[in-house]
Amino acid sequence: MLTVKHLRKSFGAVLAVNDVSFSIESGQILGLLGPNGAGKTTTVSMVAGLLTPDRGDVLVAGQRLAGDTDPSKRRIGLVPQDLALYDELSARDNLRFFGALYSLTGRALDTAIDRVLTLVGLADRARDTVKTFSGGMKRRLNLAAGLLHDPDILLLDEPTVGVDPQSRNAIFDNLEVLKAEGKALLYTTHYMEEVERLADRIVIVDHGTVVADDTLAGLQSRVATVGGGAATLETVFLTLTGRSLRD
Amino acid sequence: MALVPIIAMVRKDLQLFFSDRRAVIMSFLVPIAIASFFGSIFSGPSRNAEPARIAVAIVDQDGSAISRGIVAGAQTDKNLKVSMPTERDARDEVKRGKTMAAVIIPKGFGEAAGKAFFANGDKPPLGMLYDPSHAMELAMVRGVMTEHIMQAVSQEMFGGDQGRALIEQTLPQVQDSTMPDDQKRLLVEMLGSVQKFYNQSPARAAGSAANRGITMPYTVREEAMTAGSNIAYNGYAHSFAGMGIQFLLFAMANLGIEMLLERQKGLWKRVRSAPVSRLTLLAAKCLSGTLISLMTLWVSFAFAMIVFKVRIEGSVLGFVGISIGVATMAASFGLLVAALGNTPASARGVTTFAILIMVMLGGAWVPAFVFPAWMQQFTLIVPVRWAVDGIDAMTWRGIGLSGAVTPIAVLVGFTIAFMTIAATQFRWEEA
User: Fold this and answer.
1) A230 or B3: which carries more pLDDT confidence?
2) What is the value of pTM for the model shown?
């Protein structure tokens, strides 16, 4: 469903992403891991069409993504790391606005809003302003806003930052439902246990390049442990990216 | 351009605007309050024929017929509001700014002024105390007092006791003088004629007393050049134009700063990830800004029309055109703020300064006609100047649609320039 080919992006003299490639099939969750400043968000931004790659291509169902108004962007949903919501508006008004950006109107928009609010468990708070929501509720609404136009591909940039275990678990349940519906999910996070639970495949990037692209079991097999058992993902991650502090 | 996203963005911006109570107060109530204040200062009297009077104190230390005539003349002058304090009180009043000027007529002024009127005697000094913050009024007081002094002195010298005594005193001196005979004869004849005039019957003298002396050889027929002969200048029209424009610029700068905040909050990532063109985004922002600006301006003017009887004496179409022109210019200024601003905090400081400079030079606070000539020319580079002048033209000046064409064209030009800079400088890429 999503193919990323040889992406490269630099900001002045800083090479943020260099020759990054991976692909995600429908009904698959790909975990994108990397230390701070590794190039995860830059990669997600290029896939979402927020940044123009210096080189390389993003293919959506085989079609090259090009330009702001490329119809293929309708097949991508973005859940940014920030709580990208208008605090002064109600949950429904937020979703009404974001849905309209994808030209959803009238009954189709109302149906989409009801669907995503039900999915994230906020149907009874639809008329409340976002500023009255807890952090976890805002995170769930942030997810809902990315799902309004029923995208085939969902880009999730650290979607569980700062939420309590209950909300995090609820988000995981939502993602598993979406996976079951056949959507392709690109999931970036710093939390190893989230990737261990959710991801079918894991891509680890460091210094802008892909250092590993494998299943969890495949990654674990690369690192030998003292007792001979399976290494944790964190051990694998630190082995591949090193222990030096990052930005 | 996709219409649905544009409508959605405009509706969202309007919802956000009206949900922010502070923004609404700043945009609607504050300009009305400040414009009402400025309007009350600059509107002057209610009708054109009745100017504001200048407070002047006169201290008459002379008590002569001439000084009493000066005081009487000043008291009947429609330009002056005369009080008669002691010298000490007069000095205190001027120093405290309660009186703009004080005229001190020293002892012996009348006699000395009379002598100086016909001969080359020493001219007596007239004391003038003034408030240095009212230089313009001082010039006017000086002119008005000159008129009354000349009238009082000449009136006394051509018919008063002092003039009579001066002639009687002067005639023997002339006859005994050593001047040439022909000149002496002519001068004696003239003074003799004046003396005969003095000695005419009391009834005739009384009848002509009012006409004696030097008076202004003309009268002034004043006509305020406003929209019509029966229409008074309404200073509220100017103050509401100025303050309305100032605060719609503030509202639009705030819109630009909100865009920077949206970027900080990651909202632009979500917006930019949608299949919406850059032109659509800019057009939607410009449209919502224009609507908010128009509301700000028109609500202010509606208030002015209802409460202060401000009227569009010129072209209504021209007024609407200039309103839309200034609203789009302000909206594009907001986009410029969003494009050039680094952070909301830094942008707020810089734009506040820029707006205050623009409205000050644009004549929004005080009319541009009080500026020095060079500044009146220089400030034509400021868009606010065209907006204020254009609205003035359509309201109290009562100029037709032709008077709106140039301001509209200039405002559209500024809009295009601001939009072009904003579109090229806007950070479209979201890392």
Assistant:
1) B3
2) 0.73
